[in-house]
Structures are given as C-alpha cells and as structure tokens.
Design a protein that fits this description.
By secondary structure, the chain is α/β, with parallel strands linked by helices. It is an enzyme of class 2 (transferase).
Length: 925
C-alpha cells in the first residue's frame, strides 16, 4: 500500500523491556543521592538519547511489559512460570524508567494481559497497512517472525540490522515460518515445551521438507526415523500449544493510536531537571545544563571537560582541618581524582609517601605522609593556607583515617590513572577504593594500541600540556632518589598535577565513550576487571624454592655440556653467548652458507638464521639454539623467580598490564608467567615448581579451541559450527570435508594437515608458510588452502570483509565491540600492508578470545562466593585460568569454574572449558 499524506513514513518501536535488562546487567551498581539504585535508569537514558538522535523515524514509541501474566498463561499455566522475580535493585527503577521516557516526550504503551511483543506486533501490522516502514529496536528472537519487506529489526548492542537473511541464518527458515520452527523446538527461557528432542536445526529441516507445522503433524507417520516419528506423533498437541504460545498477537485492542506516536521535541529543561535529580551530571552537561544541582553524583557519571587554559591552584595539606575540608569538598562534588606517591613501583613492597586529590580542573592538593626532605624551599603554592606553610606533615594514621570514608563512599566517583596500582597501595594500608574510573583504561578502550596510554603522553595529546616528569623531581640513574626524599614544594607541584591532569583527561575521554559506542567495552570488560586483577596480584602464587634451585643447577650443568659440544664442533674455544664471536665461527671459520651482515657490520645470528642452518643439517647452530633456550629459562625463570619471592608472603606476585596489547589480551611481567614454554620438557618442569599451599590444590581451566570456535562464529562457517555442536573431532571433520575422505580410518597425516590449516588460517598463513610447516611443496600447500576455501567459502568472505573494514576505519571490531587498530593497512610497502591485513583478520579472533576470558574472570569471584567456595584466582595465561582450591572443595569449584567459563559468551558454537587439578601447576594442566 502507498502511504498517503499524514500517514507515518518510518515507525520506530522500541522494546523497552529489552533495553531495561540490557542496561541493568551492562552497568555496575549506581545510586542517586537518596540511595535509590539507578544503573538501569542511567543506561536506558543513554541508549534512548542515542537512539533518538540517530533515527530518521517520524513516529517513535517505547513498548513495555505490563506484568508477568498474559493470555498465554490461560493457554499454558506453566508459561514463564519458572522465571525468577526481577532483581531487588531493579524493581525501584521500573517507574523511573517510565519517567525517563515521559521526560523525553516519547509515548510509551503497555497493556495488562498482553506482552510487549504483542503490542509491537499489532502496531507493526498497523504501520505496514498504512504503507510505513517499521524498525523494531530489539534483538529478541521472538520478534523475528515479524520481519518482512517493510519490517526490520535493529540490534543496538551489535549495531546490526536484522532482515530476512539474518532470520534465515538464525532459524534456518524464512520469517513467516519462524513460528512453526519455534513450536517444534520450544523455548526453555519462556518454558515453551516444544517437542522433546527437536532442536532448531531439525525443526528447520522438517518445516522445509513438509512446508508448515500442520502438514508435518498430519504426515508425521511418514517419517522414516522411528524415534523422531514416535516423538512427533506423541507430542503433536504439545506442538500446537507451543505454536499458540510463540505466535505474536497482531490484533491487540490497543487504546493508543499509531498517530499518537508522531515524533515531537522534548523540553530540554524538563528533561535536564529530571536527569539532574537522578545525579546524571554528564548527561545534563551534554544537554546544556540544568537549574537543578544535585548534592552528589552516581558512581559512573563524568565531569564536564573544561577547556584550556586552566589556572592551577595547588595546596599542600598539613593540618587535619584542611584535610577534612578537602574530603568534604570531594564528597559534595561527587567526583574526585586521586593519586598515590610511593617509594617504589611494586605496590606490595612500596611505602606510601603521600596522596593527591583534585576536585575541579586546576584545583588540587597534596597530602604528604612520609617525607624526610624537610619543608618547601621557595613554596610553589598558589593558594596556600597558613597551616600549609610549616614543615610539619600529618601522620599516616590520621591521614588514612580521614581518607578511608571518602575512598569507600560508593556515591563519590574516584578517578585514577592506572588506578589498579593506587588500589593496591591503599589495600596494603587497609583502605578500600570503590566506585572508580580509570583514565588509562578509558584511553585504551577508545584508542587501543594506536598510541601509548601514559599520563604524560595523554596530557600532551589531549590537553596540549607538558607535565612535570618524574625524573625532574627524583633524578635519574645513580642519583635518583625516592619520592619521600623530594622537597615538599617540588612534591606538591608534581603530585597535585598528577591528580589535576587525571581529572581533566577524564572529562575529555569519558565523554567519548557514548559517542564512539564504547560504553559496553569499558563498563563490562575493562573497569570491572580491575578489582579482580588487584586481588590476583595480591594473592600471588607459591613457588618451590628448592625445586627452582635444583632446576637452575640442572640447566646450568646442561649448558656447560652444550658449550663443550659447541666448541668441539667449532674447533676452538669461544664465548657461546657472544653473537659477534658466534658469527665469526659460523660464517668465517666454518664458512656456512646464508650469512648476512647487519647494519653494524656484524654477522646476523638471530633465531631465524640459526634455525635455517639447523634445518640444513648443521649441528653447531642446532646446539646453540638448545643452549640459548636453557639460558633463557635459567635467567628468566629458575634464577629470577627465586629472587622474586616476596619475603612477607612467600609467593611470587606477577603484574598484569591492562592497557598494553593490541587485541585486549592481558600481559604479565615481573615476572612474566605467560611465556613459560608448555610444549618443551624444560618448560613443563618449571611449571611443576609452582605449587599449592598445604591443604590446597591448583586448578587449571582453559578453553578448548577457543580461537577456532571464534573463527567459526564470526565467519559463520556452517560446517564447522555444526561440527562443534556435535562435539566432533574438528580437525578430522575438516580433513574429511576438505580432502573428501571418511573420518573412520583416516590417515593421521591428513588430520595433521587439516589442523595446520585450521590454526594457520587464523593467522593468515600463506602457501609458503604452510609448506614450510608441513614439509611439502608450495604448490601442494596452495592446493590445500584452495580446497579449504572451496569447502568453507564463508571464511574467505570474512577475511575480505574484515580487511575492507580495516581499510575503511583503521580498526576492526571484536564480537564484543572492542576496537583492534590496524596501523599500516594502507601502507605503500606491500610487506607492511600484508602484515597489517593478517593482523586485521586475527584481531576479531584473538581479541574476541581475550574479551571472553575477561568476562569469565569478572563473573568468577561472585559465582564462587555465592556457592560458599574459598578458591582464589591466581593467574590468567591467555585462554587458561589458574586457581588455588581447598582440597575438600575440588569438585564443587571445578563445576562453578567450568560453568562460568562456558557461559561467558553466547556464540553460534558452544564454549567448552576443560579443568584439571594437581599439587603443582604442571600436574594440573
């Protein structure tokens, strides 16, 4: 039908209930000044504001569920009967969310006895009848039955439109057959029974073969499979009931007309006053301000970015009265940046020297706690109080006692830069930091590895401000002093500036999250991970000092034996550890082929050069590679780990970098426990030196083939998806499908080749690379890759689509929305460009795997606590988690850990976690 004048052209129907639960589960707990929880209100508001600003729709309405019961409960009393009640913190937010919609001047509709989906179906039907286009803002699969030529869905979380092809991909049938498929397979979430044993794939196959549900049931006796035939005949009525439960009602007697949904402007002052009353200062600021000034802000609102120049007023705090005034000001403002100064970089060993606070751009203070340098000489105070002029400083106990309530106050947002460190320092002092933001993580989420995320660099980049450098106040090299020896005037200028710049950066960076659609990555992946990492680093892991020393002796003895062999092969003595001397032996004394000199004129003796010579059958370079491996393990682990045992805890405490890698992976250092080689005998021996405390065991849990599963998911490879659902040997299945041979009795070599391709594809392997790996010709390797793409064309489409995305945007996205930047994607140098393209293809895979295990880590502590289990998370090594578990709680802990890991993400393939126990890490893995 063609629309006539006055008819709606484009109707937006927003699934309000979907928005509510997405907002509630996607944001951490927040409260407005009176203590009412508002995280769902805040999230709903930001999503609705974004939606209204982006859409071209001329008619908009938000549709809500009116209650838990509907006409479907008359048909089937058990419908949705097992659903738990709404979370306690969500219940008081329901009416506030209705108020949000009203404040935006958007109509909302709900009706007793009907679900929101029925109302959406009714209004969509009315709009189409009048010639309008309809966009249903939801990802609810039940609404996919409405998709048609004029009806589409918009999944705002994934920023994707759902039309007929996406419905076909989801259900295996066109939208008009979705009801029939759902009637067969049922829906455990809503307690729709369906037909036992019939899944989506089988249901789609049956409907495709018989046309519709009625025809299928009428001809069920013709089905050849006995079990399936019997099941359908015995459950025909259940299928018909299920169809009535899943079929949306398109003729609800609604009282609000479609014409009343006409989009109309909202009153900015009315909206701003309402939002300010909730404490949403950052949203109010985007709307241009409000006449209402709340007394406090919820824990995740952002201050307004203040344009430069800013006049700095820094104050040295040396009296209780002045400190109390700063704490009161920070509490009143609801936002404070804070930073700690210490005597070292190890938060478990360093002493707290002082704390700085900032409550507004340019307004900051420094509270010295432990300074031995005496009073300020030529004070830099721009607004000093009389109490700050003398040499006395507050003691540790009184300072911490005054700061403790502020840092623990959930209504005050604490902003830090690399706040993990500050939280660890305060934890050592017995203080807890709640309700925080981290400008380093904000920068990392927004800009990834496109630049560094140190404060000095960000201050220059975003504020055009040159900060005082640590070396300027503490010196360098042998002359470097610890911060407690810095004169107070210099300490004030440096420390207060740190807090001030942190606050200013927060104003710039936090505002970008919503605009660049990175709220979810920050709020659900990065920020909630910080306290988990803080606890992991504090826990550390026990190592067996005696075992390490024995390994060091063993490695040293084997190195000495190898040195004798190497020098015998060389015909003379030389320093095996000297690249210069080794180069002369290899390429001058022995005249081995392929030698290349570096820019410095020395022979290149890197691993690549030695491996190439060893592959040609030369013994000496092969023995040098063995020697280097032992030397690295000895120096990096067995010797170093003994020195890194904390004298107080008796454990080793690694540090996890949260904002370093391109793909979002965590990085371990001091010591690096993520690079211990697991496939070599020596590496496994080192893992055996990591042990559990008495009465405990170590649990190692890792994801099975997580990256290959992600390839199947993001590329939509139907053959691999089905194989994973079937629990099949994925490499054997691949070999069977690519090489056309049966799985039974398969030549192990074929499976090995399929495995090499499966994993090589993730990293953009070339025919040359595959040939080198398998020891076959380039032509044969190319034929394998061509056959692979021929069998799985979806992956080539994914690769091309991903490279195009990288060229267009400069980054690719993981399935969870993280940006993986791809510098060099347009480089004129072919090699650089090819490298960037491989990185682009790998980005969604490796980045997606990093996101998934982070989601598991975030959920794990609460899941363990809910079961009363005392296990502690100790390490994360890419796809593996290591926990220390009381012996009596092994089985219960394994069940919780695997459940959390396997439910960390909903993919088109199942996630599988495998766990093992042992008294050592080596035994557990």
């Amino acid at each position: 039908m063609t629309a006539v004048a006055g008819d709606p052209q484009h109707v937006f129907l927003v699934d309000g209930s979907g928005f509510i639960f997405r907002a509630f589960h996607g944001l951490p707990a927040m409260s407005r000044p009176d203590g009412t929880p508002v995280n769902a209100v805040y999230g709903f508001t930001t999503m609705l504001l974004k939606l209204l600003s982006d859409t071209d729709a001329d008619h908009v309405a938000v549709i809500f569920d009116a209650g838990r019961l509907s006409f479907r409960n008359d048909i089937y009393p058990e419908y949705k009967a097992h659903r738990p009640p709404a979370p306690e913190d969500l219940v008081p937010q329901f009416p506030l969310i209705r108020d949000v919609v009203a404040a935006f001047n958007v109509p909302s509709v709900e009706m007793e006895g009907f679900e929101a989906d029925d109302l959406i179906a009714t209004y969509a039907t009315q709009a189409v009848a009048r010639g309008a286009r309809v966009t249903i803002v939801s990802s609810d699969k039940d609404l996919m039955q409405l998709v048609g030529e004029r009806v589409e869905m918009l999944d705002t979380l994934k920023n994707r439109t759902i039309r007929a092809p996406e419905v076909l991909e989801k259900f295996g049938v066109a939208p008009d057959k979705v009801v029939d498929v759902q009637a067969l397979c049922g829906d455990p979430t809503d307690n729709v029974p369906g037909v036992p044993g019939i899944g989506v794939k089988t249901a789609a196959q049956l409907i495709g073969e018989y046309g519709d549900l009625d025809s299928l049931l009428a001809r069920a006796s013709e089905i050849k499979q006995p079990k399936r035939r019997e099941t359908l005949l015995n459950n025909a009525e259940l299928a018909r009931i299920s169809r009535e439960l899943v079929r949306l009602k398109c003729d609800v007697p609604v009282t609000e007309s479609l014409d009343s949904f006409a989009k109309r402007p909202f009153d900015r002052q009315v909206l701003a006053d309402f939002l300010a009353a909730q404490g949403f200062k950052s949203i109010v600021a985007r709307l241009g301000g409000s006449s209402v000034t709340p007394t406090a802000a919820p824990a995740v609102t952002a201050p307004v970015a203040v344009a430069a120049p800013v006049v700095a007023q820094y104050e040295l705090v040396t009296s209780v009265e002045v400190l109390e005034a700063w704490v009161a000001e920070a509490t009143r403002m609801g936002t404070v940046a804070f930073d700690t100064e210490t005597t070292g970089l190890d938060p478990l060993r360093a002493e707290l020297v002082g704390v700085s606070l900032a409550t507004a751009p340019g307004r900051a203070c420094y509270i010295p706690i432990k300074h031995d340098a005496g009073p300020a000489q030529g004070s830099l105070l721009l607004d000093p109080s009389p109490a700050a002029a003398g040499p006395d400083i507050l003691g540790r106990e009184v300072t911490l006692a005054k700061l403790a309530p502020l840092l623990a106050d959930a209504s005050v947002l604490k902003i830090g830069h690399n706040i993990k460190y500050d939280m660890q320092v305060m934890a050592q002092a017995g203080l807890t930091v709640t309700a925080f933001d981290d400008t380093m993580l904000l920068s990392y989420v927004l800009d990834g590895a496109s630049h560094g995320h140190g404060m000095d660099e960000l201050a220059k980049l975003h504020l055009d401000h040159d900060t005082i450098k640590f070396a300027d106040v503490c010196g360098t090299g042998k002359n470097q002093i610890t911060f407690d020896r810095v004169p107070l005037d210099k300490a004030l200028a440096y420390a207060a500036e740190d807090a001030d710049i942190t606050l200013r950066l927060h104003g710039v960076l936090k505002a970008r999250l919503l605009a660049e659609r990175m709220v979810t990555v920050y709020e659900t992946l990065e920020r909630p991970l910080v306290p988990v990492i803080v606890a992991m680093e504090a826990a550390g892991i026990k190592v067996d000092r005696t075992a390490l020393m024995a390994l060091s002796a063993e490695f040293g003895g084997r190195m000495a034996e190898l040195e004798v062999q190497i020098q015998t092969l060389a015909g003379r003595e030389f320093n095996v550890g000297s690249p210069q001397q080794l180069g002369k032996v290899l390429f001058e004394d022995m005249s081995l082929p392929g030698g290349k000199k570096t820019k410095t004129g020395q022979w290149g003796t890197g691993a690549d050069a030695l491996e190439e010579l060893a592959a040609q059958g030369h013994d000496l370079p092969a023995r040098v590679l063995d020697w280097r491996q032992l030397s690295k393990l000895k120096g990096t682990y067995t010797d170093a780990l003994v020195a890194q045992i904390n004298g107080r805890t008796g454990r080793v405490h690694t540090s996890f970098a949260l904002a370093l890698t391109t793909t979002g992976r965590l990085s371990s250092s001091d010591p690096n426990l993520q690079n211990i080689p697991i496939r070599s005998e020596e590496g496994r021996k080192i893992r055996h030196a990591f042990i559990a405390e008495p009465g405990h065991v170590l649990l190692s849990a890792d994801y099975s083939q997580i990256e290959l599963r992600l390839v199947a998911h993001v590329a939509g490879i139907k053959g691999l998806i089905q194989a994973f659902h079937d629990g099949a040997d994925i490499h054997a299945i691949t070999a069977a499908q690519v090489f056309g041979v049966p799985v039974e009795g398969m030549d192990p070599m074929l499976r090995r080749r399929a495995k090499a391709i499966n994993f090589g594809i993730i990293y953009g392997i070339s025919a040359f690379g595959l040939a080198q790996q398998l020891g076959i010709s380039n032509g044969e390797a190319k034929s394998y890759i061509d056959a692979y793409f021929g069998r799985y064309p979806e992956i080539r489409d994914f690769m091309e689509r991903t490279k195009e995305e990288a060229r267009a945007n400069g980054f690719v996205l993981t399935p969870f929305g993280r940006k993986v930047f791809t510098p060099g994607i347009k480089d004129k140098n072919g090699a650089m460009r090819a490298f960037a393209e491989r990185a682009a293809i790998n980005g969604p895979i490796q980045g997606g795997a990093a996101d998934i295990i982070k989601r598991a880590m975030i959920r794990l502590p609460a899941a363990l606590a809910a079961e009363g289990l005392k296990a502690r998370l100790l390490l994360q090594v890419h796809d593996e988690l290591v926990l220390e578990v009381p012996v009596a709680e092994q089985d219960a802990t394994r069940a919780v850990v695997c459940r959390v890991m396997e439910s960390a993400a909903q993919l088109d393939v199942p996630l599988v976690a495998e766990a093992g126990f042992g008294t050592s890490w080596g035994d557990a893995h």
